[in-house]
From TrEMBL:
Residues of the 3-hydroxyisobutyrate dehydrogenase-like NAD-binding domain: 102-221
Cross-referenced InterPro entries: 6-PGluconate_DH-like_C_sf, 6PGD_dom2, 6PGDH_NADP-bd, HIBADH-like_NADP-bd, HIBADH-related_NP60_sf, NAD(P)-bd_dom_sf
Domain 6-phosphogluconate dehydrogenase NADP-binding: 28-99
Family from the record: Belongs to the HIBADH-related family. NP60 subfamily.
Gene3D superfamilies, alphabetized: N-(1-d-carboxylethyl)-l-norvaline Dehydrogenase, domain 2, NAD(P)-binding Rossmann-like Domain
Superkingdom: Eukaryota
Name of the protein in its database record: 3-hydroxyisobutyrate dehydrogenase-like NAD-binding domain-containing protein
Pfam families xref list: NAD_binding_11, NAD_binding_2
GO cellular component, one term: chloroplast
Sample GO molecular function, one term: NAD binding
Amino acid sequence: KTSYFLLLVRHRYVDVSIIFVLLVCRRYVDVSTVDDATSKLIGKRITSTGASFLEAPVSGSKKPAEDGLLIFLTAGDESLYKRVAPLLDVMGKSRFYLGDVGNGAAMKLVVNMVMGSMMVSFAEGLLLSEKVGLDPNTVVEVISQGAINAPMFSLKGPSMVKAAYPTAFPLKHQQKDLRLALALAESVSQPIPTAAAANELYKVAKSLGLADQDFSAVIEALKAEMQSSQH
């Protein structure tokens, strides 16, 4: 066995058998975002060959990745986790070991579910403020100084006011994660009505041709609904 580590981003629909060609290193770290069932399937296939498997989806988009500020949500082989920890520390600001395979994927979906829902609520607030005569830029500033402040609001708000959506996290990926979160919730009979409503708005945004724009472009779906309600 070699001491090399294989770090791959895998598309959800890639044939699992392809992975076996890559197992010469005997250690596999998966940093993609998939549902927990898919992660468990991949882990089972890999460990059945005698190789070790660690899922390590990340929380963070383009800028955090460039700055080495990702958050790794790992689960699976604990000895492999300890071995790759120094590498994860180079790429991220923090890491969590969450136990059994599937827990990392579930945590990522929960985090992105909250993020997607927060963005919809933020977009609603910006549009409402403008509708009642407030300056949406001031709304962003007020929020940034209060208890509900989140870096996402300060980062995305000014661009959203200008109807500009430079892509850091594509809208189509946010909608995919909401869809997977809804499936996860369904599997345990957990209602998540806010996330379900948010998912519908992201689907509308995709239908408007905004799939490759930043997920903050979901505000355009709200604008479209406002316009249609006025006719």
